[in-house]
Amino acid sequence: MADSTKEIIHGIIQGFRDSILGISKILKYDASIDNSDGELKKNEPQTTLARRRAEKQKLKGNLEIKENKKEATVKQRLFQCSVWNGGVFLTSIVLFHWALLPCLLWFTELIFAGSENLNITWLWISSLLSWIFGALWILPLFVISKIVNCMWFQDIADAAYVRSRGRPTPINLSVLVADLLFSVLLQAFFLIQSTLATFLPIPGVGYLVGFIHMSLLYSLYAFEYKWFNMGWEVHKRLAYIESYWPYFLGFGIPLAFLTSMSASAVISGCIFSILFPLFILSANDAEESSQVCHSPLRLFAPVVMITNILFRQSVKSKSTPTTQQSSSPKKQTRITEPATRR
Known about the structure:
Helix content: over 70%
Distance between the termini: 83 Å
Number of strands: 0
Order of helices and strands: HHHHHHHHHHH
Strand content: under 5%
């Protein structure tokens, strides 16, 4: 029992350390590239091998240009995520709630000073402005940011994977679509499961169980890009997280803690969108724990069972019309064959 407790604590600390140290490695990466390029130029021998090397560099020129574009994409996407989610989205929310509304409240108190209807008037004004701001600004911006962030996150993950691990494993298009649909369903049901866990009647336990769910879910989000490029299927990814759950729990704790600081789901989403690209890069460079936990955490088992049932039913419903259509021509050919022989 004591050994298993030490393993769990050690795994949590290792995952937490990798998530933080991975971000610091990303900040120092550009300097290391520049230094390594300078050393290679200084140490380049001035012999006949230099000519051959120059010829090879010409052939590899296109590849180096693509890699530079990939690297620039990482910097550009990180900057865009910070500016869009923090500079535009989050700043507009902060200015509305902490600057515009207090100014309007002061102006309303100045006009209706001493009036008994001050509270009712301000309640109507604040409610109307909040509804207009949410419907005309927050909701469209939130939907657009979700779509844009998904594309930016994918660009960051692909560029980081090519930079550190090479080309991704090619995957068939049908397998790609099936994997994506299954993963989206699974993550949606797991998010519902984590929300229901917070309503446990025992004080403190519900919050702790929900926090563990969100930490593992954020780790799955971050590592899924790398595992997908490695060719891992959904079941393998989930089994790996359940077997090494202390490490992934520790890895997801910082992001889960920072996003839980605000009660607003919109503000938490902005914080997540700003910080999540850093954890994608950190997960790409992280070396997962090699020590299997003797007590695996089967939090994904109920969600996998439900998702399997729904996914198989949807696949069957899509495949039945094609089988009926493919069987009908065979019957027609059998009927027409004797006529043609005559």
